[in-house]
Amino acid sequence: MKTQWNDEVMALGKCCACEVSLKNSKHLNLVTLDKAANWEFPTWGNVSAKREEDRKGVRAVAIICDDCVERKTVIKFAIDVKVVGNDPQESEAITETVIRYHDVTTLKDMPPITEKDLGLQNGDMD
Which residue, of 28, 40, 41, 59, has the fewest CB within 10 Å? Predict the structure, then answer.
């Protein structure tokens, strides 16, 4: 499903692996990392996760191009995205989407997510 957020990120963003513009990528590939995010959005969380930190949405994410998905290229950066703007009380609201890139080597490691952590072991959801 395409959204305005997807369109803006693809127009403004670069791949977190190869650093090429996402403008020519057919898909917006959002990847969960085994790194902690110290920002608000976007992050990964899953309400069915066993570990509390994985329910809260504290994992960093990256955006990568279709080519890097195919090649399984090593991811160098995580992203956070903010929409900044003027005072919403003004007659014309002006906003801008800002994407910040964070070197993944500077982020705190988190344990890998397993099927068991998500309650998917042997197909059960306990």
Answer: 40
SS3 assignment, position 117: coil
85: helix, strand or coil = strand
**44 neighbors 113 (Cβ within 8 angstroms):** no
pTM of the model: 0.75
With a cut of 90, say whether residue 93 has pLDDT above it.
no
Residue 28 and residue 9: Cα distance in Å, rounded? 8
Q: Is 78 within 8 Å of 104 (Cβ atoms)?
A: yes
Which residue has 């003027």 as its token pair?
Answer: 86
pLDDT value of position 49: 57
SS (HEC) of 46-57: CCCCCCHHHHHC
In Å, what is the CA distance from 39 to each residue of 66, 108, 119?
26, 13, 27
Q: What Rg value do the Cα atoms of the chain yield, rounded?
A: 16
